[in-house]
Amino acid sequence: MTLSNASPLPHGGGPVLSLEHISKSFPGVRALRDVSFVLNAGEVTALIGENGAGKSTIVKILTGIYTPDEGEVRVGGAPKRFASPRDSWASGIAAIHQETVMFDELSVAENIFMGHMPVTATGLVDWPLMRRRASELLKRIDADFGPDAKLKQLSVAQKHMVEITRALSHEAGVIIMDEPTAALSRNEIDDLFRIIAQLKAEGRAVVFISHKFDEIFRVADAFVCLRDGEKVGSGRIADVTEAKLVSLMVGRPIDQVFPKRDIAIGGTVLKVEGLSNATEFADISFELRRGEILGFYGLVGAGRSEAMQCLFGMTAPSKGRVMLNGEPLAISSPGDAIAAGISYVPEDRQDQGAVLELGIRENVTLASLAAHVKNLFLSRPSELQDVRKLGKRLDVRAANWEQRLGELSGGNQQKVVIAKWLAARPKVIILDEPTKGIDVGSKAAVHDFIGELAEEGLAVILVSSELPEIMGLADRVLVMQEGRVVEEFIRGSWSAEDIVAAATGVRKAA
Amino acid sequence: MTPPVRQAIADAAPPRVSDWLLRWETILVLLLFVVIAGNTIISSYFLDIYNLSDATYNFSEKAIVALAMALLIITREIDLSVAAIIALASLATGLASEAGAPLWVLLTIGPAIGIVCGAFNGFLVTGIGLPSIVVTIGTMSLYRGLAQVVLGDQVIKNYPKDYTAIGQSYLVSWPPLPYSFVIFLVLAVLFGIVLHKTAFGRKLYAIGNNPTAAKFSGIPVERIRFQLFVLTGLLPGLAATLLTARIGSTRPNIALGWELEIITMVILGGVSIAGGSGTIPGVVLAVFILGLITFGLSLINVPGIVISVILGCLLIASIAAPILLRRAMGRPKRQA
User: Fold this and answer.
1) Among residues A33, A181, A351, B231, which one has the fewest Cβ atoms lying within 10 Å of its Cβ?
2) B83 to chain A nearest CA, in Å?
3) Which residues of A touch B210 (CB under 8 A)?
């Protein structure tokens, strides 16, 4: 691939790419059925739908990973058949993935030009030219790092910028962004949106996939909504409301996404005093009562997860005291925490929460195996009893309880992970971003369930970066900023603006 | 759209013949039958009960170590120093014998040395956090080097009769069953129960598939891995006691290269080198397949070098087969 034949797509209004009656099946699953839509130059098209609706399959067809069973992809009016990711890339389609797949040990310039490095007459890599072109491209999107930085030194947001630069290096006409904001802080999201605006101005077509409606309304011009592999709606974003999109996605209107239950709050269960560690958080103190939902809000990197993991025994504190039901607690491992009645549902489901290769049953009982030991042996009937009960309560959708967790949708995986933590019969449950990256339907089920837990007398800590979620569920919110609790808000006397201001460190005008 | 009332979710998928046929253990059973049939056709001496009993001598000691190695590999670790541990443990037994130690000392000093060696490996891996492949390449040289330094070019041969009897006579006279084979069978049953029926076994699979999630689930990942390293020291120690009694001598090159044969048994048995899957019945079947191929080929005087070429091909085929099968007909299960 040389740079001279780049720009194969027409820039400047009108359709760039179209999907015509695309269908795709996998053994036992119809992933897409007769889906058609058009991407226009200079427009952002939001691709929306619950997890499992077929968004990823479309991305994989566009990027040449899957070939459709029926229908065709047209680029600039001409039908194209992508036999490999290379074909799709050559047609000017670039994707920026949810979990960036790049080369950590290589430089930014090498990552940008991987697969199409400029070469000299002798066939060797033309390093000076590559570095020069890389700096030019980075300058175009106002990147704050140079072409020689190693990728592993960059933040997730900066890695996204490298991927965008990679797409630009190739003059890609279609740029697909699959949940690009999932791991970004507020400022980084603003930066990303600025770059998207620039891509639009340059006449590129952008496909934007996100579960967050505020982002969709901020950035998209058009939308395509999928449900169960079919297109259920499309149109201009300006012509729809959030409620309309939600009902299109789930097939039913969700009137109240966060119904707050009226729960009597009991006595103090957990008391934390001055919890600190060397670098990430300092002097965290709070009390948590029976039936209470205590929210922890803050920006990414504010130290919330780190403090919670310390409380759970993953790391050792440098200072501080923890009391459970009035008794001092010495926790030096997650095993101790679980035994004491503290459960922690980690933020990173794939890596920290789920064992994807094992079955649902094996996952649900993993943190409470001792309870299922009868005469030295694990008792499958006893395990299944818990699995059935919790699976039903959380509305897990699966073929059977032995199904491999990796085969379930993200939302259902998360329900199984939460079930695992409930099976440990906790007194205190800490949920760290429990609805991150899951679809609207599963999200509502998880929210409903959090309320139910509090109602049953559990003490709940909810760590979340989604303000509507935290304001909808929590009784109190502690805002963390740079490792410290900076402000406390009580339900009824808070406003979204105040909470965000506290989290970002903005001084309120008196 | 999902209907509002859904059927209850089944406990398990309905059994399907294709799933059963695609199980790795089923393939191994078929392979074992092919090996037995082939050997019976090739040599009329194969089905002789005394010949078969003698054949077990050639693999039982390695097979004992393979059981511990299987657990270790399932948790994403490996121990390449097992053969060197055998050498060191055999040396200790020899020195004890020369010093005139009583029988019980001769029987326990090998396993004791094994435990010490395994604990040292485990400490370097789980205590300091070094990768096990590097650590055990190092301790492989260290342990065997120690044995060679002490032994020089000597051979220890004066073992008492009551000790060598354990390696050279049968525990049960009819059917003739050697000590080492019976110990292997008993340990295999024990390991099978622990891995497949207890909470400890479940934890090993969880660690092998996702150590981070296992740690978050309250499983003491590093402590369990340490215990497995100690076990993978103890069993080579036991194998050394049996081997030394059988051959009645200790040389510096005792059990040289066994670590690879042991790992071959584990991999052919269906334990994924990436960790997280594999079964004890699979490993036991692989032990028999490898043992009987070696025995059958040596009955018709195939040179040892040719046998190792054949076994090498078999190992590669066993790793390639599931991947090729998966491409051809979906995902075969290599795990209980």
Assistant:
1) A351
2) 32
3) 351, 354-357
Sheet of strand A205-209, all strands in order from the earlier edge strand to the far edge: A93-96, A174-178, A205-209, A44-48, A222-227, A230-236
Domain boundary pick from A146, A172, A198: A172
CA distance B135 to B138: 5
* pTM confidence score: 0.79
> Cα B6 vs. chain centroid, distance in angstroms?
47
> Dihedral through CA A405, CA A411, CA A417, CA A420, nearest 10?
-90
Containing H/E element for A225? strand A222-227
Domain end position, chosen among A172, A190, A206: A172
- Structure confidence by residue, pLDDT tens digits, B66-87: 999 999 999 999 999 999 999 9
pLDDT band, very low/low/confident/very high, at A506 (cuts 50, 70, 90):
low
CB contact set of B156 (below 8 Å; sequence gap of 6+): B91, B94, B95, B97, B98, B249, B250
ipTM comes to 0.89
Residue B2, pLDDT > 60, answer: no
Indicate whether A85 and A179 sit together in one domain. yes
Instruction: Give me the domain span that covers residue A466.
Output: 256-341+426-510
CATH number for B43-329 (one of 2.60.40, 1.20.1250, 3.30.160, 1.10.3470): it is: 1.10.3470
Distance CA A343, CA A351 (A): 17
Tokens of residue A63, six digits: 């990027």
- 8-state DSSP, A92: T
How many distinct structural domains can be found in chain A?
A: 4
- How crowded is residue A28: how many other Cβ atoms within 10 Å of its Cβ? 6
Residue A507 is given by DSSP the state P
Q: Exposed (0-12), middle (13-18) or buried (19+): which is A64, by Cβ within 10 Å?
A: buried
Name chain B contacts of A314, Cβ cutoff 8 Å: 215-216
For chain B, the structural domain boundaries read 43-329
- DSSP designation for A69: S
CATH number for the domain that contains residue A86: 3.40.50.300
A1 domain-assigned? no
Best residue in A26, A352, A360, A366 for a mutation probing chain B (most B CBs within 10 Å) = A366
Under DSSP, the state recorded for A150 is: B
CA distance A66 to B148: 58
Instruction: Give Cα separations from A495 to A255, A262, A468 (angstroms).
Output: 21, 20, 11
**Alpha carbons A345 and B218: distance in angstroms, whole number:** 12
Nearest by CB: B198 against A334, A352, A378: A378
Q: How far B58 CA lies from chain A's nearest CA (Å)?
A: 34
Q: What is the pLDDT of residues A224-260, one digit of tens each?
A: 999 888 999 999 999 998 878 877 877 755 444 556 7
In a domain, A350, yes or no: no
Dihedrals φ, ψ of B198, to 5°?
Answer: -115, 165
Distance CA B129, CA B135 (A): 10
Residue B173 pLDDT: 83
Omega within 30 of 0 (cis) for the link into B175: yes
Q: What is the pLDDT of residues B306-317, one digit of tens each?
A: 998 998 898 888
> Strand locations in A290-389, DSSP E?
293-298, 319-324, 327-328, 342-345, 373-374, 377-378
**CA-CA distance, B48 to A96, in Å (whole number)?**
66
